Amino acid sequence: MEPPRSSGVGIDNSGEYSPEIAETLRFEEEIQSLIHPSSFDGSAAPTGGGSFTALLGLPANQAVELLHDSGAREPLASRIRVGEHPVHRPFHLPLDCSSAFPSNATLVDRAARFSVFAAEGSPASSSGRLKAEPQDSDSPPLDPIPTGPAKRKDTGRSKCDVRLSLSFKSQAKVTAKKSKNAEENTDGDKLPYVHVRARRGQATDNHSLAERARREKINARMKLLQELVPGCSKITGTALVLDEIINHVQTLQRQVEFLSMRLAAVNPRIDFSSLDSYLSAECGPVTVRNGPGGVVVDPSLWPTDATAEATRRLLVPQFWHIDLVPPQLQPQQSLTTWERDGAAHSQLLPNPTTSLFLYDPANSGDTNVPHRTAKLKTAEDRALNL
Amino acid sequence: MYRRSFKDTKSSLGSPNPNFSKPMVALRFLRALSLVRCSGPGARSPSYRARGIRRAAYACMAASAGPRRAWSRALLRKIRRRPGRGLRRPRAVIRRRRPVGGGDPLEVALRRLVPGGGCMEYCRLLEEAADYVKCLAMQVRLMQTIVDSASHVNSID
């Protein structure tokens, strides 16, 4: 993890946005490349690095101070300062994309804001310490992106980005207050923080920070829910969204009810014995006849990859009896009626013997429908291969 | 009878699988279905069977969601509690955290809908609700497919 790459990496999050971000990225990389060859000296150089500070629209030393403030980024910041010295050549780039900066700033800002959700998303990161950083309150918080911003958990990096974005932003909207907020609220430390952006004028003490973090967590979850429920993405406003979610849940529950009624109605006509055999083929033998009604599924008998289906891999890998039928069909196994039925995986019961769940002899009468079992097999195949 | 098998199925398949394993749910459900059917083919009314099937659906949904989810635990508890267990051993279970703020009617409604939603904070409630909705949707799709294929099979004859 090299610091020069860090801000580039951090900006990568928002890479999905625009070519402008790419330009920012390039700009930063230019700076970094600049920085590397140049020697590291600690002298503050608020001088005619000309274009860079001109971009900021601030007096040079103030800009430098901004950069300087992120303590963790000190090496980088100082390097940036150093980079201001020499060369106008690489700074052509910022001049070119200066027009892009205001939007860049917003986008970079948004990218920085991902750190909030990233940090929230992973509970490990929220060590409970909150860091307030000023932000634009214009754009709504975006969806948490779990992978990208994970890199930005490093406060130092993200702060560097914030610094840069702040400095860019100040060109767009010059508010000295904001930069002062930036200066106030940063310290350089390397603990993973939950990044909460303090809006302008909002309190930055711990309690309100905690509340804000919690609120943003809730908003993130609400976003997730919105995505799950169809038709909720367009709705704005928490109450309506919640309403929609509740409706959806109720609908689903009612559907379960109706479907179960339908299944119950349909049930008597369906022969589930072949189903049982199919199940046994999938899942392994089960001891049959545990008295009136109990079927003990012997956990030790679950085989692993009896077949190619994912289910088997999920089962407890114990190969005890391979009476289990792989789709290639092993005939044989005479252990119990279960296994005998299980032999017929793909051809469905060569011996149309009884069902596996032979609780009552009453059931055995149901199972002598081989022709139907074939059809059921395909049906069940369809059902299971959902 | 079939209730016992639910428990067994759950314990045997044990480990918390993510609910993306739809075949798992399918298997459990089909097994439970056959159990329900076998428990009393002619003797029971369809409505009784329907109730049993519904219980089976919820049970296997909860079982495949894994014990890591609060709603699945609560759902299973609710299902298994029914067979009139008079004697409740006082368990050292921290039940009611009592999240304050029953003021919002929407929140209250959501708590009632999601199993186990009475004790959670709002944040966790939303999380559990998301997972619950996902699992419910999958279960509904599964059941729909089964019903469709079953009726299709029947219509072929």
Automatic annotation (TrEMBL), chain A:
The keyword Nucleus applies. SMART domains: HLH (SM00353). Keywords: Nucleus, Transcription, Transcription regulation. It comes from the Eukaryota. The keyword Cell membrane does not apply. Its main location: nucleus. GO terms for molecular function: DNA-binding transcription factor activity; protein dimerization activity. InterPro entries: bHLH_dom, bHLH_ZIP_TF, HLH_DNA-bd_sf. GO terms for cellular component: nucleus. This is BHLH domain-containing protein. Residues 202-252 form the BHLH domain. Signal peptide: none annotated. Residues 122-159 are annotated as: Disordered. Coiled coil: none annotated. It is found in: Nucleus. It comes from Zingiber officinale. Pfam families: HLH (PF00010). Belongs to the bHLH protein family.
UniProtKB/TrEMBL annotation, chain B:
It comes from the Eukaryota. It comes from Zingiber officinale. This is IBH1-like N-terminal domain-containing protein. InterPro entries: IBH1-like, IBH1_N. Residues 29-82 form the IBH1-like N-terminal domain. Keywords: Transcription, Transcription regulation. One of its GO terms (biological process) is regulation of DNA-templated transcription.
